[in-house]
Design goal:
heterodimer; A: mainly alpha; MetI-like fold; 76% helix; 0% strand; B: 275 residues; mainly alpha; 2 domains; 79% helix
């Protein structure tokens, strides 16, 4: 009994804070979403039921933002995981490479996202040289005005997000590789399996739990590239790069439409939950809880 | 057979080399831009060799109020880290003494808090902080940053505490130490390295934070990332100054990954794999 008493002294300050910081915003978000509250219209704090959600499905901008969100969730995550895995597998083969390159590959994810946005914006603005200059001199390709075309802007954001987050995937996969048991590889070698047989039949299946965790983490954070989007495109051109959380930002903080913005965020959380649902259980299991 | 091995090896290094260039190039490009005059920056084809100028850095630091933003960043990041460590580290320790079921529940709650998209908090925080007149105060940011700093500290410190042999703790208890004394005099000193790398990682998270600062500050408490975005709005973008600001802002992260990268890698993993 006495042990428990003193243990709660350790836990209460942190979990009281977490509880307040997590629960109050969530409750407020739900309450706001059921009203018609807009800070620019005094007296608009009235019960509105599911009116915001009805309004949402009549807005083309909402469907566009869902489309863009799903693009980021799957394409950005997919490219990061594929390139990250390839690099991790190659580094794992080469001991020397690992020692020199690993610290370098730590950089991108530790840098302030705003700086990542600035760096890539500078590269993609045609008048500053950058990407288009090198495309032209190296390959003779006339590059587009990247950030002002719908598709090219989306690709530019993807490239920047791949730059920022591939190293993270690589690091986790590399750690997974280093933790694998040695014996399956030894017996495969004795049986004369070649590199690709080992990769497909042993390495990748053994890495499955790590993959689950990595994909889950990347999906959940795939839309946390808000600073990148703000710096590079601001969601434009014509909302082409605007995911649902950026849409929520503009409606809540530019148009002060608190209720509508809250409804968008609740929808966003649902989309995230649906997209990451399959990966949650295996990922939690692999973390030992 | 030998020849094929050599070709494979070359291929591997070519791919790794390309990825290395991809990683390092944007940073070098940014650095070179920050050292160019506005005219040099727009020259076509881009000038690759030039006499570097420090005017962007000097203008940024002395003329634009960036110094104040920088100080704000420093004060807010350090305060947030200290608060998160002081209340988070004991919680990570206390968690280990719970029954398995409760421990799992608390852990999942911690993960949820860490993973909730920051926009979830933004609107409610904006409303609540406005009501209490806390918009544009450093205090508001230190509170807001606990949404990610505190779970981060708990998750990483937990992984370090898990490695301490139970016998050490039991020995202290048998000698009559209370739980608090055990924690302060035995557990913390043993996990000093873990504590330091947790502090560093938490500091970086707070230092890098953008969206809370964007919404919850105006002028007085604005942090350095916000200072950089402000350069984008005035009469055209000051590319050189923006580059210089970005480079200055990167210094802590780069210093840290070069100097202590090896030590924080483990914390980074713990924070990532389990968070």
């Amino acid at each position: 009994m006495k042990i428990n008493e003193s243990n709660s002294m350790f836990l209460i300050p942190a979990y009281f804070t977490i509880g307040v910081l997590l629960v109050i915003p969530l409750v407020l978000l739900v309450i706001f979403s059921l009203t018609s509250w807009n800070l620019m219209q005094p007296g608009s704090f009235k019960f509105f039921g599911f009116g915001n959600f009805r309004r949402m499905i009549s807005e083309p901008r909402f469907f566009n933002s869902v489309k863009v969100s799903i693009y980021y969730i799957f394409i950005n995550t997919g490219v990061q995981v594929i390139i990250g895995t390839v690099i991790a597998l190659l580094l794992f083969q080469e001991n020397l490479g690992t020692r020199i390159l690993r610290p370098v590959f730590l950089f991108p994810m530790l840098l302030p996202p705003v700086c990542v946005g600035v760096a890539w914006k500078i590269l993609f603005v045609p008048s500053l040289g950058g990407v288009n200059y090198f495309l032209n001199t190296l390959f003779g390709i006339l590059g587009p005005d990247w950030l002002n075309g719908a598709t090219s802007a989306l690709i530019a954001v993807t490239i920047a997000s791949v730059w920022e987050w591939t190293p993270f995937v690589m690091l986790l996969i590399l750690a997974g590789l280093e933790a694998l048991p040695k014996s399956p590889f030894e017996s495969a070698q004795i049986d004369g399996a070649n590199f690709f047989q080992v990769l497909v039949l042993i390495t990748l299946p053994l890495l499955k739990p790590v993959f689950m965790t990595v994909i889950l983490l990347r999906i959940i954070e795939s839309l946390a590239i808000l600073p990148l989007i703000f710096m590079m495109t601001g969601g434009g051109p014509a909302n082409a790069t605007e995911p649902i959380n950026v849409y929520a930002y503009y409606s809540g903080l530019d148009f002060l439409d608190i209720s509508y913005s809250s409804s968008l965020m609740i929808t966003f959380i649902f989309i995230l939950a649906i997209c990451s649902f399959v990966f949650i259980k295996p990922a939690l299991k692999s973390s030992g809880e | 057979m030998k020849k094929q091995n050599l070709i494979t090896k070359i291929l591997v290094y070519v791919i790794l080399g390309l990825f290395f260039i991809f990683t390092i190039f944007p940073l070098l490009w940014l650095l070179s831009l920050s050292l160019k005059t506005q005219i040099q920056a727009f020259s076509n084809p881009p000038i690759l060799i030039f006499k570097p100028t420090s005017e962007n850095y000097i203008n940024l630091i002395f003329a634009s109020g960036f110094l104040k933003n920088f100080l704000n960043s420093l004060i807010i990041a350090i305060s947030s880290t200290v608060v998160a460590l002081v209340i988070g580290a004991p919680a990570a320790y206390g968690m280990l003494h719970l029954k398995r079921k409760n421990r799992s529940r608390l852990f999942v709650l911690t993960l949820l808090t860490r993973m909730a998209p920051s926009m979830t908090y933004i609107i409610p925080f904006f409303i609540v902080f406005s009501k209490f007149g806390l918009i544009d105060t450093r205090f508001a940011l230190v509170v807001a940053y606990q949404t990610f700093a505190l779970p981060m500290v708990i998750i990483i410190m937990r992984s370090f505490f898990l490695e301490i042999p139970r016998s050490l703790e039991e020995a202290a208890r048998i000698d009559g130490a209370t739980k608090r004394e055990t924690f302060i005099k035995v557990i913390l000193p043993v996990s000093a390295q873990g504590l330091v790398s947790t502090a560093i990682l938490t500091f970086i998270l707070c230092w890098n934070e953008f969206i809370f600062a964007l919404v919850l500050t105006r002028r007085h408490a604005a942090t350095a990332p916000i200072g950089i975005t402000n350069l984008m709005q005035y009469e055209g973008t000051l590319w050189g100054q923006m580059g210089a600001g970005a480079i200055i802002l990167m210094i802590p992260s780069i210093l840290i990954s070069v100097l202590v990268g090896k030590y924080i890698a483990k914390g980074l993993m713990a924070g990532a794999i389990k968070g």
